[in-house]
Request: fold
Amino acid sequence: MGTLVAEVAALGLAVAFTSPVSVVTVIVLLSMPSGRRRALAFVIGWLIAIAAIGAIAIFVLHGQDFGSKNSTPSRAASALEILLGSLLLVWAVMAYRRRKPAKEGVSEPKWLSRVEGTHWLLAVAVGAIMLSYALSLAAASEILKANVSSLDSAVAIVVFSLTSIVTVAAPIVVAVAAPERSAQRLAAWKAWLLGNSRTVVLVVLMVVAALLIVRGISDLV
Reply:
């Protein structure tokens, strides 16, 4: 169980640190009317999406023979990891080769400005959509292959959920803990993320994708 917790925590952190656009989205939401409510709704939508994946893993797929490397479910889970890793790797390499030099004053995504005039519940849907599903499915695959109890699977999902929101929840924590200084600090975060994070994210994604491929091949062999 300890190994599983470490693995899902690492995947959760990978989700957290490869989601700069999500962090920027939360920062922008905080600057809108009912900002904290909108930002919290975004995080809740993110967690609902993870909960849905976890529910499928626990209540639909749990109990099948994922523990044996030679079983069909286990081999399917390993093949899924290889597929997800390959897709992530190809996309990250292509995006890295097409990247442009970092520039100061990069504007935020235009669609974010349209959220301001909508109901704050829309932020729930935005949060659910912006979750990294490839890494989340990889975490679910690891949980299934660990062949642990439903309770342990639920604990692993909670660990993954909490680690995945480390970065997206940070702006909310700053806004609540130091409201008088949060605007300037969050503006600096947003500017840095918009201008500098793409290369770092792509490199991290390439590393994570390669590890998923290696892990999946190892389990198949």
Remarks:
- Residues 2-220 form one domain.
- The chain has one domain: 2-220.
- The radius of gyration is 18 Å.
